Amino acid sequence: MTEDKGELSADPNPSGNARPKLLAWLKAGLEGKVVGTGPTLARYSRDFGAIGRKRPRLIVFPKSEKDIRFVLATARKFKVAVTIRGSGCSANGQSLSDGGILIVTVRGRLVTPLEREDNCFEISAHNRWGAVENWLNAKGRSIPVLADNLSLTVGGTLAVGGYGIDSIIQGSQISHIKRLKLLTPDGESCWVSLDKQPDLFRFSLAGQGRLGVIQKVVIATEPYSRYSVLFQHSHRNLTDLAESMAWLDHVSANCPPLFKAYQARGKTVSVYGYYADSLVKARAYKASPLDSARDNSMRRILPAYRRLRSLSVKLWVGHYGHRKRMWSDFLVDYQGLKELTAVIESLNSTGGFGSCLKSVYVLANRTTGRGSQLPFDAGEVGKGPMSFGVGLYCMVPTNDEAALVSVNRSMQLCLETALCSGGRPYLYGWHGLDDGQLQKIQGEEFNQFQNLRQQMDPEMLFQRGKVLTRQQAEEIVGY
Questions:
Q1: CA–CA dist 22, 6 (Å, integer)
Q2: Is the overall model pTM greater than 0.85, yes or no?
Q3: Based on the domain organization, do 219 and 243 belong to the same domain?
Q4: Which of 431, 427, 438, 325 is nearest to 379 (CA)?
């Protein structure tokens, strides 16, 4: 392509005559599709959270890595902001573009994984986890950690960390990545690992995609077990639940491989479980209490539990229709868990969440002590063997601005409680955490990360505005 099409101004959000030039340039150089008008722009102006709105100038649906590379080169040439979006399941506007180019990378069909060394598989970061897991299961393998929603993209969850019911033993998703292929904002493509360009590897995982587009990853897998055996126990409230989990603060290796807890629809429940590769083995499991809260547990045996769980989450979300989903998650140590659940109980009793808090979800995450290797792994908090994820899932009626303000105020109080206990927010969700607070949490590692970004993207056009400040959060909800 020649250079005679004219340059745009340095305005990162082009308008007027600049827009048709940019559109023509992209159409001429892409194999995939570019959209500049019509209802598609409105559709992609919101993410899963549906709280704020950012309208992209143009949307690109690339067919290949070459297409993505071309869009990144275009962004540098014409000084246009560019944002990457997978399945759009963020709750804080991270996958939205404010007047720039939005690249939608999610694949409609599975890019077939490739088997590598020691039961590791190379998978496309643009695949959805559900498609990857189904393919692996047919081969007798499974991803060690999966979120409840299997429609998420591989790259999307790896950009924030990835936690699930298996994290009690397996930790985060990113701790199972052996190496990854990164397409950086300056157009370079490289495979990185802890042995090769380790800083790019360390800061790309849970770095919110701000160092480049993760194209492929090599991930370790586990043997696939068809059946899940679940033992469920009821609790009086969140305080009772937190007290029942005290044994996890000093747990040994003898620990059930599956755990979750939740408060929803008037129930507070904890679930411990095991996997089995046959129904006979599944029926042989008996409740063997590790604490008093597991006495008289109710047992269930379910096949393909991960797929069932993903479907149930989808149906649960759909039940609430078109709401603003102010969802926040926090990672804390055990003391932080007790403090945070106490605050949530207090807010519930005083009406801080109104009727909008539909679920509180708790996970246990095995810490690895690899904080220096994966500095942005939010689960690596505290000094105990476990950290705990606490998710607050609020469904706010679309036109109830007073409820939105009240819920945001309550979420900020929960954020402050988590930070005071040494915890962190999980950065896919709603929060008002700015770069200054991130620097305080992550220390010198954050400065190294910013230096890398500056080297590859001096004008900071790539993934601009991924962290919402508290002031911006308050402006969105109408404080």
A1: 10
A2: yes
A3: no
A4: 427
Residue 455 placed within a domain: no
Question: How many domains are there within the chain?
Answer: 3
Instruction: List CB contacts of 358: < 8 A, sequence separation 6 or more.
Output: 264, 320, 393, 394, 395
Confidence of residue 133 (pLDDT cuts 50, 70, 90): very high
In order of 78, 80, 162, 337, the CA distances from 244 in angstroms are 57, 52, 25, 12
Asked if the structure places residue 25 within a domain, the reply is yes
Eight-class DSSP state of 249? G
State yes or no: pLDDT of 345 exceeds 60: yes
Query: Among residues 89, 106, 123, which one ends one of the domains?
Result: 106
Question: What is the tally of helices (H) and strands (E) in the chain?
Answer: 15, 19
- Residue 404, H or E segment: helix 401-420
Q: What angle do CA 408, 103, 318 make, to 5 degrees?
A: 45
Q: Are 55 and 98 in contact (CB under 8 A)?
A: yes
Dihedral, CA atoms, 81, 86, 89, 93, nearest 10 degrees?
0
**DSSP letter at 286?**
-
Model confidence pLDDT, tens digit, residues 235-267: 999 999 999 999 888 876 678 999 999 999 999
| CA distance linking residue 206 with residue 445, whole number of Å | 13
If DSSP codes are grouped into helix, strand and coil, which group holds residue 383? coil
What are the b/e assignments for 380-418, b being 16+ CB within 10 Å?
bbbeebbbbbbbbbbbbbeebeebbebbbebbbebbebb
Helices (H), 44-128: 65-78
- In this structure, is residue 463 part of a structural domain? no
4 has a pLDDT exceeding 60: no
Rounded Cα distance between 393 and 407, Å, is: 10
